[in-house]
Amino acid sequence: MADRPLASPERSSSAWRHAPIDELVASIAAVDHPRLRAQLVRLGELLAVVARDDGDAWPETLVPLRSAYACLRDAVTEHLDQADQEFFPALRACDQGADTHARPAAADCRTVERVMRALAARHSVLHAALGRLREVTRGYAPPENARPAFRELYYGLADLERDLDARLRRERDLLFPRAVALGKGSPVANV
């Protein structure tokens, strides 16, 4: 799992910087988001198994871990949902207006700006939730005598953090600056 990068592997970060916004959004929506959602489901199921099988042996770890995981899961799900349902459609509509050399619809661009601010604010919430998870798991280092499922859970949580961080960087470094440029009606929005 850790060896597979998010988004299309045939493109580097610099190539994505110059890709059409619609292609970048499509890749994130079709590759990144389903993968993150699948990881959340798989890790939630694995956490339930570990709590059932090892809960008596590790209550000081598993009780706060379950709480930290639930907070992260809910924050990630809310973030992905808002991107999929509000940000991406408005960004595509705003971009289509720019592509036709027409002034992008003001309502679409205002939506992009509003949702972008909400998503950016949520980045700190997501990073705090990841930090709490990392703290509870002591840097995703399973106890020496942990069973295989316990180890798999910790390694999967580390993979989730790495993948989510990559997704957030792509949003912050690629999508947000271009969305700001689109909102200003900049002709360099897709350059």
Describe the protein's architecture and organization.
This protein has five helices and no strands. The protein is an all-alpha fold and 191 residues long. The longest helix has 41 residues, at 59-99. The radius of gyration is 19 Å and the shape is elongated. 28% of the residues are buried. Residues 1-9 and 186-191 have low confidence and may be disordered.
Q: Strands, helices and their partners?
A:
Layout: H1 13-18, H2 21-54, H3 59-99, H4 106-136, H5 148-183
Helix pairs in contact: 2-3, 2-5, 3-4, 3-5, 4-5
Number of domains: 1
Distance between the termini: 33 Å
Give helix % range. over 70%
Which structural class should the secondary elements be placed in? mainly alpha
- Strand content bin: under 5%
Summed up, the helix count is 5
Shape: elongated
Low-pLDDT ranges: 1-9, 186-191
Characterize the biggest β-sheet: none
Look at the structure and give the mean pLDDT.
85
Query: What is the radius of gyration?
Result: 19 Å
Number of strands: 0
